[in-house]
Amino acid sequence: MGVDVVNLRLSEELSELLASIPDMEVDEFIEASSRPLPETFRVNTLKSSEDRCLGLLMEMGWRFERLLWARHAYRLITCEEGDPGGTLAHSLGLVYLQGPLSMVPVEALDPRPGERVLDLCAAPGSKSTQIAQLMENKGVLVANDASSERIKPLIANLQKWGVYNCVVTLKDGRFFGKRTRNFFDRVLCDVPCSSLGVVMKDWSSAKTYSHRRSERLARLQLSLLLASFDASSPGGFTVYSTCTIHPLENELVVSELLSRRPEAEVIEFRLEGLRGRRPLEEWGRRAFDPRVSRCFKCYPQDNGAEGFFVALLRKVG
Amino acid sequence: MELMDRSHRKRVEEALREEFGVEGGLGEEFVALYSSEGKVRVTTPEVFEVAREIGRFESVGLYVLKTTKFGVYLSLEGSQLLRDRIRRNVVEVDRERLEVWMRGEPIPLEGVKGSVEGEYAVVRWRDVYAGSGKVSKDGKLHPQIPKSRRLLGVE
After folding, report:
1. What is the ipTM of this complex?
2. Which of A54, A56, A113, A220 could form a disulfide with A136 if both were Cys (CB 3.0 to 4.6 A apart)?
3. Which pTM value belongs to this model?
């Protein structure tokens, strides 16, 4: 089977960025970012058992294999229609199409039934539905987003997934750091970013990249991470994640959090079958907190999928 | 979005019993909320309490049914949630008819498994419940599938 390879041209600014990242293999990054993303999905265990769901999918002509690093997740080999998004299974809410690495932040967060969980930047709902699934609809999920346009697909996706233990809010994420301090057992802070790890999905992120924008994003990301951490309870967990490779938006943001919140610790985590690499200790003239090395980072070339950065933090106390 | 008062909830649950033989109403574990256009949502008391503590919210819980002056329509997820307690007016369809249903088109009741007494019926394929519809005089069941959920037809 042939592979569609897009001719990816980099701007001068992006070329400079890639060249400045010491562990970046630029040619491999371009090659991996030019290939289509593997099609992966989760089956809906809130509506049926996993086995029954898989049986129905097989009856509908789907063929798939397990994705090792996420629960209830599969890599699609073939389905009855060319586009899995146009299938009966999708329309019924039996499956959720989600990128393979996009499932990692929630796996790291590991929400449990009965807990209070906040998804700070939740739209369009991929990770919220994944959280609700792992919570088995027990406990409380607050799914927030700051965009009134993106709230609608979030509500629609939670409905389609059969989630009843959720509250959807439309707020600036920083609200939660002040108004719900120490309230949540777990908080997911999957922030807006330059998306340079998902260029294969959206080429415009490579075209529109600018260093200044990443600097602006990093300030916003830090404020959202601080709010998330403050909203977590003592002993509670916060996951910070981006789908970019930019050290300003990844290592630097976590390093800043660690310097401003002495009660924060970084927990190392491993997921089966997933290739990652050690975060940077320094970049440019900036040295990062050494504890940042416990975070997870991967580039598109590492797993033939998205590039992601994920930090699992715990509030000591 | 308002918490449904006891008498209103009782009326809705009575309609559920009459139309689909649902015993136990919406479920003791849930609070019921009345939203716009006669839509009813359910969630747990704990979730509703947190929603109130947060203040303004956009949505809470799951949309399960819509009340109209003619009767009650179960949403896809509402029928799935109540599936173990739905006792009557369930029609079992094959995959082809389910696809027609999910395109938002009426399905003929002739030849389907299950009987319909009255004007409303729930559609089921295997253990997947796909919402309810109203029976027309020509013997077809008309769905209430939201446009965003509909399968696109094959030309």
Report:
1. 0.96
2. A113
3. 0.96
